[in-house]
Amino acid sequence: MVDEEQKRLKSSGGSSSQGPSYAELQKELKKTQDMLKAEQKKTADQAHTLAELERQVKTLDRKISLATDRKKTAIADLEKKNVEARGLEQRVKELMEQLDGEKASRSGEAIKHKDKLKTLQKSLEAFQAAFKEYQEAEPGRVSALKQQHIRSNEFSEKVCERMYTAFELAISATKDYLKSKGQLPDAATIPAEDYVALLAALGPPEADVACCAARSA
Question: Residue 177 and residue 189: Cα distance in Å, rounded?
């Protein structure tokens, strides 16, 4: 459109008497072209701004959609939890009523158990007193038992047996020593009556010698 206007002005260039001169028209044309470029730039900037706004609007739409979905999900979860909470509340109420009933039914048993506990405590105190008395008398009782055991035949027999064993080991060791030195033949043995004589020579009581002699026989 601008090119056509330039051609028209050139074709009528000499007739200055009929309108503006060619230079004026050129100046006006340049001014118009500048204005057109400015408008075109504004239009491009506006298109870019419009595209950016559309992009932002789409982004906001997605965010709003996501937020709406989250809100719907949260509301659904909240409603579900409210239902569960009401169920739990009812369950707790039923359990509390059951607990109150059990407390009421067991109140009599609790009193019985309390009385029984008191009786057991008294029995325990009596047992502790008797046990303390027993402990205090224990040293004398143990001493008496020791004296009784020392004087018993069973204790004497055990002492006799241990003495006989010790003397027998000593005689046996002596015999082996004499054999090793050649002072006794290897086939030499000590008769039972000689054992009695040796034990008597070592000096045990007569009752113990008789006991050891009976064992060696």
Answer: 13
